[in-house]
Amino acid sequence: MHKDSDSFICCLLVLKLKPEETCETCGGGSVNNETKLPEVLVSCRDCGRSGHPTCFELSPNMVTSSKKFGWQCFECKSCTVCGKADNDDKLLFCDDCDRGFHCYCLTPALDAPPKGDWSCKPCKTKFSKKADKSAVKC
Predict the structure, then answer these.
(1) What is the CA radius of gyration of the chain?
(2) 71 and 116 in a common domain
(3) What tens digit of pLDDT does each residue of 30-72 get?
(4) Where do the PHD-type domain residues begin and end (predicted)?
């Protein structure tokens, strides 16, 4: 029985990761049904939820980063450093890559989420013309 339950769990994990083939917002596939333009879907690396970057309002930087790091939908978002999704009131989202970071997992740690836009250090370096030396290291 233990062997079968392991197979069942393994099978569920494989099914969970299969990306959806249509956008959950507009219902389109390789063509965005709202813009009528071809657009590649992004898919959550954890649950497989898919959508067009324009439908999910993802910036070009977020799309670029999703190819390197994978993308997580809002429901699956977790901290890039510790991997946990708890304490969501302390979970920051980078405005460039959309990855999550707990305030207390950053180096140096932050007491509270900053007001306004925030970018993690790799994104400050990659996407800013002039990297801000005050960026927090991830």
Answers:
(1) 17
(2) no
(3) 999 999 999 999 999 999 999 999 999 999 999 999 999 999 9
(4) 20-79, 76-126
